[in-house]
């Protein structure tokens, strides 16, 4: 196509090609989800359907963007990991981040009715997104550990907070009761006052969700009626510990 005299304005666009050979993490986070979860009456402290919807969106993003090798999610956030040598969109930052955040958001709206058939979506939800680069494997591992520890700390606190509120305390009384308490005291409070053994709560609540691609056997029926087993890579949702070495030893293809 012939270039117009206006074409030069393209030069005003900034070059945002990301540093090569670095782990690339794109984290998306629900915008104003404190209010969104209130208005849509999410169960507190953890609405399982809302978490399953987040996981569904993340799997969908991974099935669309094959450069993503791992995703980790908790609460209203998801981190997508692209390998060091990823060349997606020439590593242009805004192109990568905006595509992921928009895909995630459209999936959230698209699949809402499957997870909340009885709840109308009251207004269009939105997510923000950012990219962070990690040149060293240990910083990259620490990033994921940071998110999983955050999940644990928030979940322990929120579990105590809502147990106190449900038992009749006001929100500020519950806050006061928890101020300055350490983990072991929160575990003790849950057990002694509410007979809740924290370690028996669902792993998805305590550890979040990690999605990786794994080769699995998939049975398919051929046209001639014969059943054959083929190896297929699928995105699997796990609730594993990703802080210790075990997960990384079991998944060497991640290359950490
Ligand atoms: P921001 O726009 O700055 O991210 P925010 O209101 O989304 O603000 P966050 O720190 O992201 O604040 O916290 C998200 C909030 O959404 C949580 O504190 C929690 O109240 C709520 N939330 C998210 N997921 C769930 C869920 N599955 N069940 C119950 N509540 C949830
Ligand atoms: P990229 O992902 O790089 O943006 P693209 O396929 O979206 O690739 P664009 O240069 O953005 O390429 O062009 C969008 C194309 O979408 C147009 O070339 C046209 O074919 C189609 N398109 C968009 N809007 C309309 C419309 N209203 N009616 C018909 N076709 C449309
Ligand atoms: Mg935030
Ligand atoms: Mg948020
Ligand atoms: Mg958040
Ligand atoms: Mg266009
Ligand atoms: Mg286009």
Indicate the CATH class: Alpha Beta
Q: Can you tell me the residue ranges where pLDDT is under 50 for at least 5 consecutive residues?
A: none
The helix fraction, in percent, is 40-55%
Number of domains: 1
Strand content: 15-25%
Structural class: alpha+beta
Name the CATH homologous superfamily. Answer: tRNA(His) guanylyltransferase (Thg1)
SSE string: EHHEEHEHHHHEEH
**What would you report as the Rg, rounded to the nearest angstrom?**
22 Å
List cofactors, ions and other ligands.
adenosine-5'-triphosphate, magnesium ion
| Mean pLDDT, all residues | 97
Can you tell me the CATH architecture? 2-Layer Sandwich
Strand order, biggest sheet?
A: 4-1-3-2-5-6
Largest sheet: 6 strands, antiparallel
Helix count, DSSP H or I runs of 4 or more residues: 8
| Overall form | globular
- The CATH topology comes to Alpha-Beta Plaits
Straight-line N-to-C gap: 46 Å
The total beta strand count reads 6
Keywords:
256 residues, alpha+beta, Alpha-Beta Plaits, 6-stranded antiparallel sheet, 8 helices, 6 strands, 42% helix, globular, binds adenosine-5'-triphosphate, binds magnesium ion
Task: Describe the structure in brief.
The protein is an alpha+beta fold.
Task: Chart the SSEs and their pairings.
Blueprint: E1 23-30, H1 33-39, H2 48-64, E2 68-74, E3 77-82, H3 93-115, E4 127-134, H4 137-166, H5 171-178, H6 183-194, H7 203-207, E5 209-221, E6 227-238, H8 246-250
Antiparallel strand pairs: 1-3, 1-4, 2-3, 2-5, 5-6
Helix pairs in contact: 2-3, 4-5, 4-6
Bound molecules: adenosine-5'-triphosphate (2 copies) and magnesium ion (5 copies).
């Amino acid at each position: 196509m012939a270039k117009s005299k206006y074409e030069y304005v393209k030069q005003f666009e900034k070059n945002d090609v990301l540093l090569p050979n670095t782990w690339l993490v794109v984290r998306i986070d629900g915008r104003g989800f404190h209010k969104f979860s209130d208005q849509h009456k999410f169960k507190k402290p953890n609405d399982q359907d809302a978490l399953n919807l987040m996981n569904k969106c993340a799997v969908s993003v991974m099935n669309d963007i094959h450069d993503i090798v791992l995703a980790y999610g908790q609460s209203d956030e998801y981190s997508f990991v692209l390998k060091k040598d990823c060349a997606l969109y020439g590593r242009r930052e805004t192109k990568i981040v905006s595509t992921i955040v928009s895909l995630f958001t459209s999936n959230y709206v698209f699949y809402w009715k499957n997870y909340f058939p009885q709840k109308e979506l009251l207004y269009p939800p939105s997510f923000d997104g950012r990219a962070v680069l990690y040149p060293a494997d240990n910083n990259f591992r620490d990033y994921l550990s940071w998110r999983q520890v955050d999940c644990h700390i928030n979940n322990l606190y929120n579990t105590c907070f809502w147990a106190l509120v449900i038992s009749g305390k006001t929100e500020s009384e519950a806050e006061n009761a928890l101020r300055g308490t350490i983990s072991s005291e929160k575990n003790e409070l849950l057990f002694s006052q509410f007979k809740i053994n924290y370690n028996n709560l669902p792993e998805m609540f305590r550890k979040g969700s990690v999605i990786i691609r794994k080769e699995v056997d998939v049975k398919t029926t051929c046209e001639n009626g014969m059943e054959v087993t083929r190896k297929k890579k699928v995105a699997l949702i796990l609730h594993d510990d990703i802080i210790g070495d075990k997960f990384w030893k079991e998944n060497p293809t991640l290359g950490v």
